[in-house]
Fold:
Amino acid sequence: MQEVRQQHEQQYEENGYAIIPDVIDPALTEEMRGHIAWLTERHPELRPEQFHHRLIVDDPFWIRLCTDPRLIDVVEPFIGPDVALFAAHYIAKPPRIGQPVLWHQDGHYWPLEPMEVITIWLAADDSTPENGSMRVIPGSHKGQRIREHASNTREPNVLRSEIASTVEENDAVDVVVPAGGVSIHDPFLVHGSLANTSDKPRGGLTLRYIPTTTRITCDGAPAYLCRGNAVPGVNTYPALPRYRAGEHYPFAGCDAPPWV
Ligand SMILES: O=C(O)CCC(=O)C(=O)O
Structure:
């Protein structure tokens, strides 16, 4: 176990990403798919690739999922024992019309000081090249840091922007993640994903975790303390919302503390 963990850490350091299968159990993965369907019904004004962090504020299941100890165990070796969730975003590509994510580096978009942060990408469905899995340029997190990005509204795409210069696409590697598994990636890694033109959905939840020493430098949706201690004067963390039947997505354990 320790050896496998060390392998992931080494891959992350060298390549800027790693894949870890079997992190959450099938029942929770099923609940996650149900949650995507619930959000899709509740938010007809949004594409399911755009279920953003601000929706988490009054969503006990979402917070329950993001604070699952198995996910925090994945990030703790990289960012230490005091962990907060900075952002969460479902990029759920529907069959046939799922939009691509153009080449980018996450660090370009984030108001964090310092840029100490790690992403977990959690698969709700098996994520493969067929249904628009993530693609990465291994090692691109090293050397040059943030590349120039530019707006792109010419073609449908999730971020409406991309890296402005040529990306070394011949070096791209597909990140295949089974449902319930995760990939992790560095904020400077060049990555993206193609459109989903297959008959299968490709649900994924991208989660950004910071050590509580990292300061969020703009006001936005709140961060959540997931493990350990807050640093006085650095970020504020709200109380958890209470579960209300009929208003919230029901889930195993919603009728017990900390949700009631
Ligand atoms: O879900 C995708 O296709 C892309 C995910 C991504 O860009 C990210 O998690 O930073």
The two ends are 36 Å apart (CA to CA). The longest helix spans residues 26-42. Residues 2-227 form a domain with the Jelly Rolls fold (CATH 2.60.120.620).
